[in-house]
Write a structure and sequence with these properties.
Elements lengths: L1 H26 L4 H31 L3 H15 L16 H24 L7 H18 L15 H31 L4 H8 L1 H16 L5 H19 L8 H29 L6 H31 L10 H28 L13 H9 L7 H12 L1 H13 L9
Helix pairs in contact: 1-11, 1-14, 1-15, 2-7, 2-8, 2-10, 4-5, 4-11, 4-14, 6-7, 6-10, 6-11, 6-12, 8-10, 9-10, 9-12, 11-12, 11-14, 11-15
Length: about 425
């Protein structure tokens, strides 16, 4: 029941985040206006995490952990009334449910293999057949997308080089971010011995500072080059992670958690927002819904895959993590190696951004001519849970619908110049 509920939760997230990104991209023209809009968008997302952390700490301390899920359900129900009563009339597109199912179960199987391989063995009957079937499903999914008339992930979209690099970069960035949140939480609770509420309060500085930085970046980013910003942000994220790794049962929260969180907040802000803008900048309006869904899928996959990989590193280098008392040095050894794994993700992100992202400003489109764009349009049209990976398939399912809606929206507007 718990896994089924997580599947439904992932499907809900996959239907909201890409649609929200597409609405921002379509209704705000490329340049400073869109940069500010995405800055506000991400600021409110961070604001939600602030209230979420506080609410989680208060609810667990007072009502118990089951009320975490009940409070989320109540919040989702209230959010429903923010949806316009009269939806826009658009053509109902055909959806490739076969491809969506293949992608969903394929990704879920790979995540299960990475999460359970250490416990059952990487070549055991409990894990290896699942991995083989999952790889087969993903390979079949790619083949099917080249044959169906209405693919949920048209392969032509990957011809946008900057977009392709940004999606992979988003995957690595989310793996880093979720790894930091998960393992700093474990350090505060399992090594420092803090309560749930005290841990939530200890985490607040990070999202709060990110929100403030996003607001400022929305105004100054049009005057900056995005690539150096992403490179610098990746470096300071790795530096902050290295500081986290020095913590132990006797460490000060201020020097080994609070200050690194401040540094890390700048790094996250300097990488996530510019990368999101780069992902959609060279893409035509009619493809905004599609690329937003794929970008969101990259983020959704980064969390479970990242945590799975880091858990393997932590457990493999720590041995027995079933420690009864807080502050055991052996427990911190595994967490420290997980922090080193996060730095490894950062190194990969740095070189990916260095070699594949352009050097231009946000108000200037990437070096793709209008003729090339037109040619592209004519080419055929925590321990991680499986529920996290299911959202990948759900996000892919709405790509066709998002693309058709974006085309309809695009036809009603005067085409906006791609250069300011």
């Amino acid at each position: 029941m718990f896994i089924f509920a997580r599947v439904l939760q992932g499907m809900g997230a996959a239907n909201t985040v890409p649609s929200a990104m597409a609405l921002v991209a379509i209704h705000y023209p490329e340049g400073p206006t869109r940069s500010k809009a995405f800055a506000v968008f991400r600021s409110f997302a961070v604001l939600g995490s602030i209230f979420g952390a506080l609410l989680a700490g208060l609810v667990v301390s007072s009502l118990g952990w089951p009320w975490i899920f009940r409070a989320s359900s109540i919040t989702a129900l209230l959010s429903y009334f923010a949806i316009p009563l009269t939806p826009p009339k658009n053509e109902r597109p055909k959806i490739d449910f076969t491809g969506a199912a293949m992608a969903m179960f394929g990704v879920a199987g790979v995540v299960y293999y990475m999460s359970s391989g250490f416990d059952y063995g990487w070549t055991s009957l409990e894990t290896l057949p699942t991995f083989i079937i999952s790889v087969f499903l993903l390979a079949t999914f790619v083949f099917v997308e080249t044959k169906v008339s209405d693919p949920i992930m048209p392969l032509r979209i990957w011809k946008y080089r900057t977009f392709s690099a940004s999606v992979i970069l988003a995957f690595a960035q989310m793996a880093m971010l979720q790894g930091i949140i998960f393992y700093t939480t474990m350090v505060m609770q399992e090594v420092f011995g803090w309560s749930v509420l005290k841990t939530a309060l200890g985490l607040i500085i990070h999202p709060f500072l990110c929100m403030l930085i996003y607001i400022v970046m929305g105004k100054v980013m049009p005057h900056l080059r995005l690539k150096p910003l992403i490179l610098f942000g990746t470096v300071i994220r790795c530096g902050a992670t290295l500081l986290f790794s020095f913590a132990d049962e006797h460490s000060s929260y201020f020097f080994f958690i609070f200050l690194p969180y401040i540094i890390h907040a700048f790094g996250v802000s300097f990488t996530t927002l510019p990368n999101q803008i780069m992902a959609i900048r060279e893409v035509n309006n009619c493809d905004q819904g599609l690329v937003s869904a794929i970008y969101s899928t990259g983020l959704q996959l980064g969390a479970p895959f990242g945590i799975a990989i880091l858990n393997v590193i932590s457990i493999a280098t720590n041995g027995n993590q079933e420690v009864a008392e807080h502050g055991n040095p052996a427990l911190m050894k595994g967490y420290r190696n997980a922090f080193y794994g996060i730095i490894g993700f950062g190194i990969v992100s740095f070189f990916l951004a260095l070699f594949f992202l352009p050097w231009d400003k946000p108000s200037i489109p990437a070096a793709v001519s209008r003729q090339e764009d037109e040619a592209l349009e004519t080419v055929g049209h925590r321990a991680p849970s499986i529920g996290d990976s299911i959202s990948c398939g759900s996000a892919l399912t709405i790509m066709a619908r998002s693309e058709k809606q974006a085309i309809s929206e695009h036809d009603t507007k005067v085409e906006i110049s791609r250069r300011w």
